[in-house]
Write a structure and sequence with these properties.
The protein has 521 residues and is α/β, with parallel strands linked by helices. The protein has three domains: 190 residues, Methylglyoxal synthase-like domain (Rossmann fold); 114 residues, Cytidine Deaminase, domain 2; 129 residues, AICAR transformylase, duplication domain (Cytidine Deaminase, domain 2). It has 20 helices and 20 strands. A six-stranded mixed sheet has the order 8-13-12-11-9-10, sandwiched between helices. β2, α2 and β3 form a beta-alpha-beta unit. α18 runs parallel beside α19.
């Protein structure tokens, strides 16, 4: 492999570019550059040739066309040991370009800038940059392509040692380059689909940036990593800051996501405890300390080793309660200094700080299957309390105001638990939770068993019940009546709704229908 002689540099992210260019010049490598990059290098005293001077063609159309030229792409793409390619290059005065350091117009940051117009955003769709990157990556047998500043040092080290980079390095950088342009195009595509209200396009792409490799996946024999989707600004587990504790595991992140998405449903102080991706205790109260104690009381056994999610500041009083049991993680908007000092005495607990809960973002929820994926809208359906109060009640007895508040609370919890789900609640606190059973009657009985374990034999007396889907038979109602449930919320829609309503009327149970189902698989 011949020594590298010419590099083309055109970067939006200029971190490290001056030091990189200086090192190239010290190695006797000629530098070609464009626009703002050329100015940055020249201001640093680094001699470079403007691409317009190199090609003999000026930048035109406000810079939209500047590197789309045979001298640029011919210099990158020609096969160095192909006789016909070399003959053509000589005939057209095409010089080899051996190093291409290019990253792309800041499309994402332009989108995220609230002052940007659609015209600004469109102008920040890079054309020449991806073309050069793809050309260089295709011809990686001869050309080194760089899209990330963190790779500059390795390339300089190899150039100093051998006059060029190794084929192994060029292969890795080429694969990285294609991922870079692929993600860039997927961000543009998904932004425009959303902007132009195009759902489920004929071709769908997605991608992300590595946040961290995981020690392992769901199980120790599985490898895993955590990626963040571009343009995601919604307050979420992806945007949290870890303030203390061990590195997050794959399962921690899954559980944190479930815990935080559930606590986001509540406006008043609320606490959620998650175990194995299901709620084992949830409560809403006038203050966060009370909410946590009520949530914890639902299932003190399952809370051990769980994830706690809170929607307000954690103070010392609450931290003292949290420190009494082993918890994998606590996620909250903030921690007082003394609360953080107390909790951080435990070396393993992960303390996660969220951003403010803002408007929810539209994005697809997708589930991987072997060889493909399923896409759906996120389940963002919510009822505010006034809407909930207006839902139809097909029973003779209508729910009281107190029952309605508990029903609305229980409905929010049921939305975030694995199907089949039954929730018993009282005073905006989960009393018993039955999830993930193959039959709804089993969930009904499991939730009752949990309630009795926590609160005693008559725990469910006076509580309300929520079901994430319709009741296929009246047996669930008859069982709930035995536990003295007073009101029930479900989607309705069963062919046996009349039997279910009749069972409620026979037992003086109020029922409301939401016409919305919340299966979660």
């Amino acid at each position: 492999m011949n020594k590298a002689k010419t590099a083309l540099i055109s970067v939006s992210d200029k971190n490290g570019i001056v030091d990189f260019a200086k090192a190239l010049k010290e190695l006797g490598i000629k530098i070609l550059s464009t626009g703002g990059t050329a100015k940055a290098l020249q201001n640093a005293g680094i001699d470079c040739t403007e691409v317009a001077d190199f090609t003999g063609s000026p930048e035109i159309f406000d810079g939209r066309v500047k590197t789309l030229h045979p001298k640029v792409h011919g210099g990158i793409l020609n096969i160095r040991d192909n006789t016909e390619h070399q003959k053509t290059a000589l005939e057209h005065g095409i010089e080899n370009i051996d190093i291409v350091a290019v990253n792309l117009y800041p499309f994402e940051s332009t989108v995220l800038n609230q002052a940007s117009t659609l015209e600004d955003i469109i102008e920040n769709i890079d054309i020449g940059g991806p073309a050069m990157i793809r050309s260089a990556a295709k011809n990686h047998n001869y050309v080194t392509v760089l899209v990330a500043p963190k790779d500059y040092d390795q390339v300089i080290a190899e150039l100093k040692a051998d006059g060029n980079t190794s084929i192994n390095t060029r292969k890795k950088l080429a694969a990285k380059a294609y991922a870079h342009t692929s993600l860039y195009d997927s961000v543009i595509s998904n932004y425009l689909n959303n902007k132009f209200d195009i759902q489920f396009p004929d071709e769908f792409t997605t991608g992300g940036r590595l946040i961290q490799p995981m020690r392992y996946g769901e199980n120790p024999h599985q490898n895993a990593a955590f990626y963040k989707e571009p343009l995601m600004i919604e307050s979420s587990v992806t945007n949290t800051t870890q303030m203390h504790g061990k590195e997050l595991s794959f399962n921690n992140i899954v559980d944190l996501n479930s815990a935080y998405e559930l606590v986001k449903e509540f406006k008043n102080p609320a606490a959620v405890i998650i175990k194995h991706n299901n709620p084992c205790g949830v409560a809403e109260a006038d203050d966060l300390h009370t909410a946590y104690l009520k949530a914890y009381s639902t299932d003190t056994t399952s809370a051990f080793g769980g994830i706690v999610s809170l929607n307000a500041n954690v103070d010392l009083k609450l931290a003292e309660e949290l420190s009494k049991i082993f918890l994998e993680a606590v996620i909250a908007p903030s921690f007082s200094d003394d609360a953080f000092a107390l909790l951080s005495k435990k070396p393993s607990i992960r303390l996660m700080k969220t951003s403010d809960i803002k408007e929810l973002s539209y994005e697809y929820d997708f589930k991987k299957v072997v060889g493909g994926m399923l896409l759906q809208d996120r389940d963002l359906h919510v009822f505010d309390f006034e809407m909930f109060k207006a839902l139809p009640s097909p029973t003779k007895r209508k729910p009281t105001e107190t029952e309605l508040k508990d029903l609305a609370f229980a409905w929010k919890v049921a939305k975030h638990a694995k199907s089949n789900t039954i929730i018993y609640a009282k005073n905006r606190t989960t009393i018993g939770i039955g999830v993930g059973q193959m039959s709804r009657i089993d969930s009904t009985k499991l939730a009752a068993m949990k309630a009795e374990n926590a609160y005693g034999e008559n725990a469910i007396d006076g509580s309300v019940m929520a079901s994430d889907a319709f009741f296929p038979f009246r047996d669930n109602i008859d069982t709930a009546a035995e536990y003295k449930v007073t009101a029930i919320v479900s989607p309705g829609g069963s062919v046996r709704d009349d039997e279910v309503i009749a069972a409620c009327d026979e037992n003086n149970i109020a029922m409301i229908f939401t016409s919305i189902r919340h299966f979660k698989h």
